[in-house]
Design a protein that fits this description.
mainly alpha; three-stranded mixed sheet; Clc chloride channel; 4% strand; 26 helices; CBS-domain
């Protein structure tokens, strides 16, 4: 069609060739799965951006509070890693041990009080996030965001011997869950956003974007991955990492490290390192479990236990400082026992100018590893809101550094670099105790800035994984996806009380009603197929289906002689908290179309039928577009 001279063709005519070309490349309606993926990635980007902001604010506030209370007030240097924020202490600031004695307890009081509003925020946070994914279908209460944030700052800012990655894992998971809830996403999409939030939370504070994404999908299982969440997790992790870099700069956590060239002849040494790390990991897990049991036996309310843990930590650190100072002469500072322990890991990698690299250093690293196990157990085992990731990395690094330095001194081999053994020890320790070999390998390689240690990492992790097969830091991990409730059957995460139509009035029949009276009641309720039969106190004692009444209705004389109790069958009831999968199986076995759902007092609140089960299955397995389209 040609436009008349002097007139501009209509806009639609001008764009038609472009539309025709685009129609060949992109269909008018993209595949539904593509729509879901695109929407999920957009939501994951949002979660990553917000998690990056929250993680950066969390890191800044925790370190500033720690600087004021520990450095300025107590005169204690927390010994941070090269890439952490640094708040220098006045050169002549004396150690005020009497403050250091009670400051962790003060943080425990605040943390414990806040945890009363969300008990699931007690402890590290990683295990709670895993449990929420599997047992609650990715649903986390919104209040966890604020409570975990504040409680963890109180714990870490006062010297709690735990890490920030565990709290940010739970905060990121809660963020993904909240976003999924407010956007009314399907259960599958909500769980994916939760995994993306975990990755973003770790990446924002540990600065390993790929490793954080792998950790988020790997830490959910002992022998499996949440593979469908990988791409959203990577996207969220990269965005959170970028936000954190824009705030804190680009320096890696342990600074710019030298290369650690691989020497094949050193492989037997890495086998020995794997055994030492496995022993240390077993001691750490045992110490944590013992601390939880002991603190659980203390009298008083549960929320006060982190204060007892903080007091024990303060006493332990003060005694340790006065014991070690005459030996190493460090002015009661720089032990790295309080806080996450990355400063101690830095010593294991790069050494310290206040200790000569000899047997004294080997002894010091081993002592600090043991001290870190005790300190972390006091903080986390008592319910303090601090993570177990950083202590695991620090302890593994200290053991690896001590082993590497000892091997170098014994063999008089300058090619043995203790820093490389420290990095490998970090990965093997956490990989074995948390069942995340691939994530630990990549994270340590990102921290090191190269993959020079790839072969030693693979060997050491493999041996540690075998040795620690029966040791597990996260008890909520199922072995595989098949053992996860959310994957075993989507209806297991949906409760009967969530799907019944409460607006529908349920017609009840009495035991002693005649068949004629029952038939009249049934005729008046054409939408109800099964009728609960109740006794004088409204307790369900049987069920009567409309179909079973047909034989009696055919004989009019039976209307007055027979009663409902004569034709009712044994009762089948469900509680509001029963999952829909269990209800569906029971209905099939009893060949019933519906059954009553009871509240805590045993009263009928509604009927669950085949239509409710189908709606629940649709909502659990499909996105909103699919279920409404």
């Amino acid at each position: 069609m040609t436009a008349p001279p002097g007139k501009t063709p209509p806009r639609g005519v001008l764009l038609r060739p472009v539309r025709n070309i685009l129609a060949l490349i992109v269909p008018d309606e993209p595949p539904l799965e593509l729509q879901i993926i695109g929407r999920t990635l957009l939501h994951a980007a949002l979660v990553g951006f917000v998690a990056g902001i929250i993680g950066s604010a969390f890191l800044y506030l925790a370190e500033q509070l720690q600087s004021v209370l520990l450095q300025d007030l107590s005169g204690y240097d927390p010994l941070r890693a090269a890439g952490e924020l640094h708040h220098p202490t006045a050169p002549d600031a004396p150690l005020r041990w009497y403050f250091l004695l009670f400051i962790p307890a003060l943080g425990g009081v605040v943390c414990g009080y806040l945890s009363r509003f969300a008990p699931e925020t007690r402890g590290g946070g990683g295990d709670a996030a895993i449990e929420a994914f599997h047992e609650h279908g990715g649903q986390i209460r919104p209040r966890v965001l604020s409570v975990k944030f504040a409680a963890s700052i109180a714990t870490l800012g006062t010297g709690g011997a735990g890490g920030r990655e565990g709290p940010t894992m739970q905060i990121g998971a809660a963020l993904g869950s909240v976003v999924g809830r407010y956007l009314m996403l399907s259960a599958r999409e909500r769980r994916t956003l939760m995994v993306a939030g975990i990755a973003a939370g770790i990446s924002a504070v540990f600065r390993t974007p790929l490793g954080a994404a792998l950790l988020a999908i790997e830490v959910l299982y002992r022998d499996d991955f949440e593979s469908e969440a990988l791409i959203p997790a990577v996207l969220a992790s990269v965005i959170a990492y970028s936000v954190a870099l824009s705030v804190f700069g680009t320096e890696p956590l342990f600074g710019t490290l030298p290369h650690f060239p691989f020497h094949p002849r050193q492989l037997p040494l890495y086998l020995g390192l794997a055994l030492l790390v496995s022993v240390g990991a077993k001691l750490f897990e045992t110490s944590m479990s013992t601390a939880r049991r002991l603190f659980a036996k203390l009298p008083g309310p549960e929320w006060i236990r982190p204060a007892f843990g903080g007091l024990g930590l303060g006493v332990f650190v003060v005694v340790l400082l006065f014991t070690l100072d005459p030996w190493i002469g460090n002015g009661h500072r720089g032990m790295g026992v309080l806080g996450g322990g990355y400063g101690a890991g830095q010593i294991a990698i790069s050494g310290a100018d206040w200790v000569k690299p000899g047997w004294t250093m080997v002894e010091l690293l081993l002592i600090l590893a043991a001290a870190k196990i005790v300190a972390a157990s006091l903080t986390i085992g008592s319910g303090g809101a601090a993570g177990d990731f950083a202590p695991s990395i620090a302890i593994g690094g200290l053991l690896g550094g001590a082993f590497g330095l000892a091997a170098r001194l014994l063999l008089d081999d300058p090619s043995i670099q203790p820093g490389g053994f420290a990095l490998v020890g970090m990965a093997a320790f956490y990989a074995g105790i948390a069942n995340v070999p691939l994530a630990a390998l990549v994270m340590v390689s990102e921290v090191a800035g190269s993959y020079d240690l790839l072969v030693p990492l693979m060997l050491t992790e493999a041996v540690a994984m075998i040795a620690l097969r029966r040791v597990n830091l996260y008890h909520s991990q199922p072995r595989t996806t098949k053992q996860s409730p959310v994957h075993a059957n989507p209806l297991m995460s949906v409760m009967c009380g969530d799907v019944i139509g409460r607006e529908r009035k349920t017609v009840l029949l009495r035991q002693r009603q005649t068949i004629g009276e029952a038939a009249g009641a049934i005729d008046a309720a054409p939408d109800q197929d099964v009728f609960p039969v109740v006794d004088d106190v409204e307790r369900v004692v049987g069920l009567l289906s409309a179909e079973s009444l047909r034989g009696f209705v055919a004989h009019r004389e039976a209307h007055e002689v027979s009663i409902v109790a004569d034709v009712a069958v044994a009762p089948l009831t469900f509680n509001e908290s029963d999952d829909v999968r269990t209800a569906a199986l029971a209905l099939v076995r009893r060949d019933l179309r519906a059954a009553p759902v009871l509240d805590k007092l045993g009263r009928v609140v509604g009927m669950i039928d085949q239509h409710d089960v189908m709606r629940a299955m649709t909502a659990a397995t499909m996105s909103p577009d699919q279920s409404h389209g």
